[in-house]
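Cross-posted from the bioinformatics board.
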Amino acid sequence: MIKIEPESNRSNWSGPSRLRNAQGAATGFLLFGCALITIVTTVLILGVLGGETISFFRVSKIGMFEFFTGTEIDFKSARPRFGLPPLLWGTFVIAVGSSLVALPIGLLSAIFLSEYAPERLRRVLKPTLELLAGIPTIVYGYLALTVITPWLQSVLAPLGIRVEQFNAFSGCIVVGIMIVPLVSSLSEDVLSAAPRSLREAGYALGATKFEVATRIVLPASFSGVAASFILAISRAIGETMAVVLAAGSLAQIKLNPFTSIETMTAYIVAVTNGEASYGSAEYLSLFAVGMTLFFITLCLNMLSGAVIRRYKESTP
Amino acid sequence: MNPEPRVGGDAETAPRTQSQSSPTGDVSALKTSPAGDSAEAIAPPRSTDAVLETHNLSVYYNTLLALREITIAIPRNRITALIGPSGCGKSTLLRCFNRMNDLIPGARSEGNLWFEGVDIAASSTDPVTLRRRIGMVFQRPNPFPKTIYQNVAWGARINGYQGDMDELVERSLRRAALWDEVKGKLRESGLELSGGQQQRLCIARTLAVEPEVILMDEPCSALDPVSTARVEDLMDDLKDEYTIVIVTHNMQQARRVSDMTACLMPDEALADGHRTGVLAEFSATDRLFTNPKDPRTEAYITGRIG
């Protein structure tokens, strides 16, 4: 035994009590339980999705090939038809279109906030931007329907372009605005976290503020910025209400952005609100679409994890 | 033509003109009009060999006086050491010379500060051009998260270097005594190197933009003795071509490497929680360490304070 306490003070110390040991054990159990709940929930959701997806293929007699290549959705006729591509197309258009809006605006605001804005302005501006994320998505949809689309119609009508009441373009704009704070806020965090020593090294070599921001800070924070992009795209893919209200629910593949589309999430809403009876092929198609959505989001999350790991080594 | 007649030392700096931009052009770019600033601006002193000079320079961080009335002349092609206890403003003084303090909100200076006769602190002086000519090496090695090659080439590239980049990178790495260790792995990350190598990489990066002065802020404090010795040897090589100012906590180091030593001290009269630095003594290193004139310097170098 090593004597840590002087002999005379030894009686003042009781050593680790039973209570403390019990506290440690209880805390461990509690934390493990919380972690377990999330895992169990995920597994159960996956189980339900997977099971119902299999039932869908069995009940509807639709083959995998048709599911992934068909372009029609029709459960009314004697032989039900279901093809995912129109829904994938709708989701793809919203993801790409809203990214075109959100990624540049988000990244540029992040660079402005972290590198250019004076501290006082930053403290006001950042929470204001984050407020955008707090607006209910249904409000964005309503905004598209009552403000953006009528405006587009009045601007584009003289040019001979017909804008439908529900159109992909408005959907992309509102979803884009909605996800700007995700990009700007997360990117601003990683940009500000770039070490001051790196910035000073740049300035000491005679770099301007712009060169330090774009050629030192941004590359050094690449993994975090890329992760914020992917997160924002996932959000756009999963977005439902704003898209339903802005872009409608008409499953079709058309290159014209001023026509209606239907995303996977919008399809799920439409079927849920419809009169599909429990256990029917149409009802079960929800789960097949949900499973696809889950898979896409999972892939994006894994991609963002891989990006972070891949570039983590290159940043200090 | 160079509007500022330089009296001495030109011959020594002349060989360093391989860069495309001529030093003369740089001087005129930096130059502020003589009558431009306040009427009481003191005319730049015409010492024969001073590169950097300050006259009654005081520095504030917001309302805090960090340095008071420093008057010092940094001689050309010499190594000048700034020593003194922690918190006496050595780094603050160093960072005045390339206006690095501009980056700190609330920092401001009073008094005069010249580089080759040009008023450094004037608003008409471009800090970007100034920093190209006055390089800086930091306390902790801070290579960019880029390859070794890019680390060296980066500064030269943003400053518009038109010559052969491969040649410049090799020359800078050789000058920093790092070439033999990294020549086979120029495409690897600069962060893979050891601490001492990283610091020499940072020196190579600084040399690549062909500055006239190199400021070093405790460049060896994060290095082991072997790496420290290599950096010190390197400084001795470099002083033929460059003017070096080094902040160090290590009095042996100041004694080993420097020609001139400035000893800064916290002003006891103002010691109300924070410290205001003043220049206690500035003289040839040998004289300062063997025969200090100022009692505070003597107390510090003999280990009685600080």
